[in-house]
Amino acid sequence: MEEVKNHTYNLNFHTRKWVKPEDLNPNGTLFGGSLLKWIDEEAAIYTICQLGNSKVVTKYMSEINFLSSAKLGDIIEMGLIATNFGRTSITLFCEVRNKITRQSILTINKIVFVNIDENFNPIPHGKTEITYSRDRFKS
Ligand SMILES: CC(C)(COP(=O)(O)OP(=O)(O)OC[C@H]1O[C@@H](n2cnc3c(N)ncnc32)[C@H](O)[C@@H]1OP(=O)(O)O)[C@@H](O)C(=O)NCCC(=O)NCCS
User: Where does the HotDog ACOT-type domain start and stop, copy by copy (predicted)?
Assistant: First the structure.
């Protein structure tokens, strides 16, 4: 269980990244833009798995709170959890932390994805709660 901003979430830290030279800013620490790109992709994959639809778009991201930085050679991990299922949308909470020290690098309270059809219009996803791959893929 992770304690973040008065919330307690069971985050799934699925994806790890090894901070490499091409990920750094001119100060020699992890470039925020690289991290946000990784988070957006990870959150999209999480959403696709939860909603069972590969056509989803990022709608909204709340305040991003960079708490600490990462440096060359650090291993970081990204944690996500769905905090709300709307009619066509899903809201996620995100935390990124140093895998070794567990120090929090950033938190994002709300990332909203919208489920869309082939014409890019929002469509209901019909989901109301988190599912797990062991249940989703069982025959
Ligand atoms: C996503 C998009 C299709 C939604 O269109 P829209 O006209 O806002 O649709 P709606 O008003 O019906 O809202 C759709 C859902 O988003 C939610 N939403 C809309 N604006 C929001 C906001 N600012 N913050 C949080 N949620 C929001 C709505 O509450 C609704 O959720 P619900 O059905 O679960 O209640 C449209 O805004 C779009 O194409 N945006 C560009 C997406 C994009 O290119 N992203 C970057 C690349 S992935």
Answer: 9-119
